[in-house]
Automatic annotation (TrEMBL):
Keywords: Cell membrane, Membrane, Transmembrane, Transmembrane helix. It comes from Phocaeicola coprophilus. GO terms for molecular function: antiporter activity; xenobiotic transmembrane transporter activity. It is a multi-pass membrane protein. Pfam families: MatE. The chain crosses the membrane at residues 12-30, 42-64, 85-112, 124-146, 158-179, 185-206, 314-333, 405-425, 437-464, 470-490. GO terms for cellular component: plasma membrane. This is Lipopolysaccharide biosynthesis protein. PANTHER family: PSMA PROTEIN, PST FAMILY PREDICTED COLANIC ACID TRANSPORTER.
């Protein structure tokens, strides 16, 4: 088993251990919050939080740039360059956090005077939540260099510990909302804004103690040329990020303007559930993405492409393993999970899951393009595609189309056309073969999806709704998935890695049984 595979498996294991705890805690937390706040206040928090994210786009752009440069230089083995990257990004993010805070403060006036459709008696509470989230966003921006350093070192064990801590802090906030006698929305917004301050402070302390490049000395390590290079890369990422976040959260504003806060609650529930399902793939990608950038930094283009293709395939398979039975049994899951299911929530969740599934097919190709570095042309096209669903959704709603047309526009532009664009530029810039992509990723994933879904639908049609049917759907789809995955999706090399891993686990268990 290669050292790269060992590293990825080990880091993925840490992250999945975290996920096993945080997924259930997060789902239970959402249920508590929805029942405590009610659909209207939950929708208000979702729309105000979306407004914050819509103007916090610069953070995502710089985060991607910093992580790419840190991982790339880690692959080169240049520690002095890493110190320069860290200090340059630290100064940039300090400035960005101040700018973002000012912009968000000014934007708040417009949000609460004509843009957001919020009941008059809840305006004050919404403003308190908005102000709390501004402070939280500023601190989040300032932590990007530390996050990038941890990614470059592939320290996923620390992420697991902090992630578990964060999920239990959110659960504590949910219980505080249930039992508080004050305004629940204000309490929820204020306490949620405190969580990033706690977790991010811990991250900073850890990085300064464990990583030699995390040293604050801008006078020594400041490099103008490096700032220009990082700024150019981040500038194009900025254009993609602003179009992405503007549309993603702008859709919430459009939905709110035409349909009110109740449908924002349905959208928020869909985002929560789909976000938990997507965690299964994001967990693996968190471990894989630094390897992609490092491989390019080592001038190993073949390894970079192979890792990208494998992460696309396994990311897709991880998502559909849980998404297919969840989509089929969504009405029953919603009833058990929430009791009071917001209108349109079931369909919104199913469409959101479909969007996520399709995007997994090419999810790592964007990271391969970023690792290559020449992203100008790709960024222009991606930005146009990102912004298109916002205008299409507004047009659909203006013509009295149903709310689900928002997701149809979203899926068409982002998932389908956006995936084709990624594939084209990965071929053009990195030399990825179309045939290799369809053979290694698309074909096996499509076959497994069709057969697994067919089994789940048949079971669903033969039985009445209930816990027994849910269990049989999960068992049927899981058995089909595992069988077809082994026969169709895995290469001989991948099967060998899995067999060696299983042998290693069995040996460890025998050792513990006999000697411990």
């Amino acid at each position: 088993m290669s050292s790269t595979a060992n590293r990825v498996i080990k880091n993925t294991g840490y992250l999945y251990a975290k996920m096993g705890i945080t997924v259930f805690v997060s789902l239970y937390t959402t249920r508590l919050i929805l029942n405590s706040l009610g659909a209207s206040d939950f929708g208000i928090f979702n729309i105000v939080g979306g407004a914050i994210a819509m103007l916090g786009f610069l953070n995502a752009a710089m985060a991607s740039a910093t992580q790419r440069f840190m991982s790339y230089s880690e692959g080169e083995g240049d520690k002095e360059k890493q110190k320069s990257i860290f200090n340059v990004s630290l100064i940039l993010h300090l400035g960005i956090s101040l700018v973002v805070g000012i912009v968000l403060f000014i934007a708040g006036y417009f949000f609460f005077n004509g843009i957001l459709n919020i009941p008059a008696d809840r305006i004050f509470a919404a403003k308190v939540v908005y102000g709390s989230l501004i402070v939280s966003t500023m601190f989040t921006v300032m932590t990007v260099p530390y996050d990038a350093a941890m990614n470059a070192h592939e320290n996923m064990k620390y992420y697991a510990v902090v992630g578990i801590l964060e999920s239990f802090l959110k659960l504590a906030v949910a219980f505080a909302c249930v039992y508080t006698t004050f305004d629940k929305l204000i309490v929820y917004g204020s306490l949620m804004a405190c969580i990033p301050l706690i977790t991010l402070t811990i991250m900073r302390i850890y990085c300064h103690r464990h990583y030699e490049e995390c040293i604050i000395a801008p006078r020594i390590y400041w490099k103008k040329d490096l700032m220009k290079e990082m700024g150019t890369f981040a500038g194009w990422n900025f254009i993609v990020s602003i179009s992405n976040v503007l549309t993603q959260n702008g859709l919430s504003v459009v939905l709110n303007s035409f349909w009110g806060t109740t449908l924002n609650a349905a959208q928020g529930v869909g985002n929560q559930l789909c976000g938990q399902l997507q965690t299964f793939s994001n967990t693996m990608l968190k471990a894989v993405n630094p390897v992609i950038a490092k491989s390019e930094g080592q001038n190993n283009r073949n390894l970079m492409l192979q890792v990208s293709l494998k992460s696309c395939k396994f990311s897709y398979l991880l998502v559909i393993f849980f998404s297919i039975p969840a989509s089929i049994e969504m009405p029953y899951i919603m009833k058990v999970w929430l009791h009071n299911v917001p209108e349109w929530a079931v369909l919104f969740c199913q469409l959101q899951i479909l969007r996520t599934i399709i995007e997994q097919l090419t999810i790592s190709l964007g990271n391969a393009i970023a690792a290559h570095g020449l992203i100008k042309s790709y960024s222009k096209v991606s930005s146009l595609l990102n912004i298109l669903p916002l205008f299409l959704t507004w047009l659909f709603f203006k013509l009295d189309f149903a709310p689900y047309w928002m997701y149809i526009a979203w899926i068409s532009c982002w998932s389908i056309i956006g995936g084709v664009v990624k594939l084209y530029y990965c071929n053009k810039l990195c030399g990825l073969s179309y045939k290799e992509f369809f053979t290694a990723v698309f074909s096996p994933c499509l076959i497994i999806t069709i057969l697994t879904s067919l089994i789940g639908i048949i079971v669903c049609q033969l039985m009445n709704e209930g816990l027994l049917r849910l269990l049989l759907v999960c068992i049927g789809t899981s058995m089909t998935f595992v069988f077809m995955g082994w026969k169709v999706a895995l290469t001989a090399e991948e099967k060998l890695v899995i067999m060696k891993l299983l042998d290693k686990i069995k040996f460890k268990k025998r050792y513990e049984k006999n000697y411990l």
